[in-house]
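Components:
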Amino acid sequence: MKKHQNLFRDLQEDFRKMKKNLLVAQSGGPTAAINATLAGVIKQAIKEEQIDQVYGACYGIQGVLEQKFVNLTEKVDTEEKLEKLKRTPAAALGSCRFKLNDIKEDDSQYQEIVDILHKMNIGYFVYIGGNDSMDTVAKLSAYCKEKGVEDIKVIGGPKTIDNDLCGIDHCPGFGSAAKYISTVFCELEQEITVYEPKNVIIVEMMGRHAGWLTAAAALAEGKNGNVPYLVYLEEKPFSLDRFIDDVKEKLASTNAVLVAVSEGVHDTEGRFLCEQEESRELDVFGHTKLSGTGKILEEAVRAKIGCKVRSIELNLLQRCAGHILSKTDIEESGNLGANAVKLAVAGESGLMSSLTRVSDAPYTVEYSGVDIREVANKEKKIPVEWINEAGNGVKEELITYLTPLVQGEVSSIYENGMPSYLLLK
Amino acid sequence: MKKHQNLFRDLQEDFRKMKKNLLVAQSGGPTAAINATLAGVIKQAIKEEQIDQVYGACYGIQGVLEQKFVNLTEKVDTEEKLEKLKRTPAAALGSCRFKLNDIKEDDSQYQEIVDILHKMNIGYFVYIGGNDSMDTVAKLSAYCKEKGVEDIKVIGGPKTIDNDLCGIDHCPGFGSAAKYISTVFCELEQEITVYEPKNVIIVEMMGRHAGWLTAAAALAEGKNGNVPYLVYLEEKPFSLDRFIDDVKEKLASTNAVLVAVSEGVHDTEGRFLCEQEESRELDVFGHTKLSGTGKILEEAVRAKIGCKVRSIELNLLQRCAGHILSKTDIEESGNLGANAVKLAVAGESGLMSSLTRVSDAPYTVEYSGVDIREVANKEKKIPVEWINEAGNGVKEELITYLTPLVQGEVSSIYENGMPSYLLLK
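Structure:
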């Protein structure tokens, strides 16, 4: 009898050893959908027989090194909490901007991470983030392969409002930011047509190296009126003089013009707008000295056209607006999280969870994994053939690409008039 | 028989003469709820037996003088359109910033308006707007009384995101703007706690003469975390040095501080922040020259504390955010519009449609009319006893006042992923 008891205990122990824990962390800039991916990871991990506990590291890879862990199996233990997490903006586990050492110069940090993961019986590590974070995934998975660490699978979960990751049709978080931006443009179109006198509103969007967010403004054009839009993406060279001509031309036949501009527009030589000579010239008018791209354009319109003009910087609002999310984006973000877990459990490592667009109408996607080296440290820009010749608007191809990504609405969960979020840290 | 026919025709004619048309117009700055008031006016006017057609003047009183009218009985002829109008931001009829002549110097404009209204058989004129618009209502109704024009009743419909009208507990439009602002603060609180290093976010709100909008930020404090807020209202003198001390003190015990500031904060002598010597001093650091209040504070934190800091100007977004409205505000705005019609039909003139708060819990209001002269050209500020001694936060009385105004959620109506509005002009 005693012998049998021991055997049973050994079997239990063997079974426990077979099960591994999963660790998930978030990195890079916040988005309104990154917690939907986290929710997808948790939901799938709980389902997987091979996975025991789900842990979260607070503040990204830095939190792994500092061993700041929370038990997510305990913290997110109901469907209601999962739903609340899905609709919580920013990064519930916290984030970091932390660069691991160059692996060729000093690999001790990598071994430190592996030791910590081993100590916690982590067999699966999902790192959700953008470009830099995928670099971390690439390095860590490469290190594990090189050192023969076969019991830790490292998978990347994509995330960025900038939509500039390679190896994926579009990035989780982008759809919600795009929906926020196009919604704001619909609203500003009502605002700008309230008064009769000539009026220009300039809105500056984030994205230093790709104009996807700015392009989303174009989704609103013609939907609730006939105000002309001017859309300047950083994929085409920008000239302040041509901009003024564009505005003048529009104002010749209408009273209101909406301008969408990427923060990173630059001239043919790559100089950002604030570094261009024409924008410096404006100072002689004695106006307030310039800061952002939108402000420079505002001052230029004031000085050279003289009509009513206002600039708006969407700033952080465009990446944390949990009160108006794209349903498509939130669902896909969750699915990509779940897919990351499935890849890890299937024994894959060094991949990013990805999706491919199968068709525009009906809009369908397929989930897969791409080699992380095809993603890390690359940037996907808008194809220039999707931008008009004049460089002040977008072509139908871009609208076709964007439209499915903003479909459906999900909002925050409200309690007593205020949004209510799930806090994990 | 012929005699009878004539009699019938005469009766019909008498009956038609008894019925009058209603004219409604909108004025002043846009809000997200002014069209809910317009919808309330239309809905009630259609119900009233004494009212024949409902007309709208485009671009406020200027549109009346220019006879730019639309027939709203025809344009808004279904419940579905009324619902869409309720959720359309800005002013669907257009607005103006037009000051009528001083009645003592030249009253010809007033007679011109009366002649136009008579020509169109207008018996009821509802003018929706803020302070300046109520001045127009006061002058026009006074003119009618003085000249014995008894067949035109003029009623004001309140509207302003600034919440600074006298004669009413709170202003339509304010609740939705307050909900937007407190929601944004909930979101920024998630955003600011994503990274560990010390971090300050400063948000500048509209309202040159009253701090109600800025105060709304305080509704978010403690709801989704424990980030300390600093709230600066224009009702208390502002000092840049004290502000820096406040931020330093908070940062001594926490990593993140959220600052809400009214655009019009000023020192004890009434000088706006940008006119104060301390803020000019900042230039010696060689930073970008300053523009708005938020930017000045951002530069001050950067120069004197040196931590991560960002300023956000909510700009037009706070007054046209139709994608997140207060249900309470939208309902009350509609009721105030309906109440304006009821007052006019009851033979009143020279009143503003108003509401009184009967109780905080359960929150109940009563609708009434107040003498327009008690409203026009006055400003309601936040009682200083609702602000803390240090002038950097609000007291419970202010929270109690604000809380019912942001209850419930109404969003835009979406079609194919984009908001869909009712256009009237």
